Amino acid sequence: MKIGVLALQGAVSEHIKQIESAGQAAVAVKKASELSSIDALIIPGGESTAIKKLIDYYEFKAPIQQFSAEKKPIFGTCAGLVLLANELADGSEAHLRLMDISVKRNAFGRQKDSFETMLQVKGFTDNVPAVFIRAPIITEVTEHVEVLATYDNQIVAAKQDHLLVTSFHPELTEDNRWMKLFIEMVKQAHQMSTIH
Ligand SMILES: NC(=O)CC[C@H](N)C(=O)O
């Protein structure tokens, strides 16, 4: 099994380290043709408008949508979450439109621009550290989406089938439970694809 990290802009090497620390093979994905050699994709945090432009420039949009249509798992962190959303609360155009969520960018305002906290997460026994950096929040979900964590009554982590998103940056902590959760999703998808 190999997990790719979309390597156009943002926190790429941190994700690669965390995938490897969780015992899986990782690769930086720079060309759309490389999607065919990976089992799952992480879209990292960074600047969503910059990543969006680069996705268009390097013609990644349709191939990533196809990757998702094949039920291959995708994990979007922070800017990655913004890119996966069906709708953006500020009225600007959503990009990949793969997940039934509405997202508000930079939702914590200047006073809480960046902060670290401990979150209670559905399915995790102990609270997990979360680093928020100009983080988005999920303002709406449909019934297909499972909410995994909230902060201040705002949704900050969720899952829909093969898609996982967090508003914060799990790769910037030593705690790799999010990555392990994602790897479980990848293993399940892998098994399903070999059965069919
Ligand atoms: N840390 C991040 O990924 C920040 C995301 C950024 N605020 C955006 O909307 O692109």
TrEMBL record:
GO biological process terms, semicolon-separated: L-glutamine catabolic process; pyridoxal phosphate biosynthetic process; pyridoxine metabolic process
Presence of the UniProt keyword Kinase in the record: no
One GO MF term: glutaminase activity
Annotated SUPFAM superfamilies: Class I glutamine amidotransferase-like (SSF52317)
InterPro entries: Class_I_gatase-like (IPR029062), PdxT/SNO (IPR002161), PdxT/SNO_CS (IPR021196)
Binding residues annotated for L-glutamine, in chain numbering: G46, E47, S48, R105, I133, R134
Catalytic reactions on record: aldehydo-D-ribose 5-phosphate + D-glyceraldehyde 3-phosphate + L-glutamine = pyridoxal 5'-phosphate + L-glutamate + phosphate + 3 H2O + H(+); L-glutamine + H2O = L-glutamate + NH4(+)
Protein's pathway: Cofactor biosynthesis; pyridoxal 5'-phosphate biosynthesis
Keywords noted in UniProt: Glutamine amidotransferase, Hydrolase, Lyase, Pyridoxal phosphate
Active site positions, chain numbering: C78 (nucleophile), H169 (charge relay system), E171 (charge relay system)
GO cellular component: cytosol; glutaminase complex
The protein's role, per its UniProt record: Catalyzes the hydrolysis of glutamine to glutamate and ammonia as part of the biosynthesis of pyridoxal 5'-phosphate. The resulting ammonia molecule is channeled to the active site of PdxS.
Protein name, UniProt field: Pyridoxal 5'-phosphate synthase subunit PdxT
